[in-house]
């Protein structure tokens, strides 16, 4: 009868609001994606879905909060590639990326864009790399902390340019963007989600896209943007992805309900339109299933651990 009781108890899930934890400051790309998803999850879950930011340490503080949360399906994590890179960047990570989470499905893939303050003299990657070489490390490169997507892209950039820069960490790329627009920092490798509107508004200079395909967006019609690979960094390819996670031990009935709700939310035409207008690609492949999602993250973890080790970046 216990099994029947358990099944009946979870059959009502969710019977109170569900929280999506975002491990970065409000207003950043991860926050925007989570708020978009929260809106689209309301209908399939039949419940209020709220977003709560727990920023710091490149997203690892927010991830740890969900890893420790009650496994009842009411506290979920929206996180990106940082879940796969943090193990190579932190000696004492307060969670295990593969063992401490239930994988609910991948949400989207997003390119990043190398952007700079408008007062930079350089107008293309060739001129930029010359200025960086002459600046002897005094280039201020903003990111959202060790383990963030902007940190990873910045690391790959420094490796490709063979030049160390001064990194300036923030609690998210939203506050970093404010300083970049204000000219307090020089460069940032920001996800297209937040970079595209600023490029369109001519608030920042753009030097290249981090993925292998160009960003063919109406918003960038005035500013054709090459990929960093074609602009002079052959093989450069950083694609940021976002997934949805629950704490390990969340009941299977709840996991199935959440994965079904995610699938329904990602079919929401308004969500698709909004995200594609910013260069995001909604996941429709096997990575939408928990098994495919977990296999993908494991492969990414192995790949980026090797790349980070080869880059000589030491773990915190
Ligand atoms: C990142 O660099 O990891 C993200 O852009 C952080 C954020 O969403 O603020």
From TrEMBL:
Entry annotated with the keyword Nucleus: no
Pfam families recorded: TctC
Keywords carried by this UniProt record: Signal
Record InterPro entries: BUG, Bug_dom1
Origin superkingdom: Bacteria
Keyword Signal: yes
Family designation: Belongs to the UPF0065 (bug) family.
Name of the protein this chain belongs to: Tripartite tricarboxylate transporter substrate-binding protein
Native organism: Polaromonas aquatica
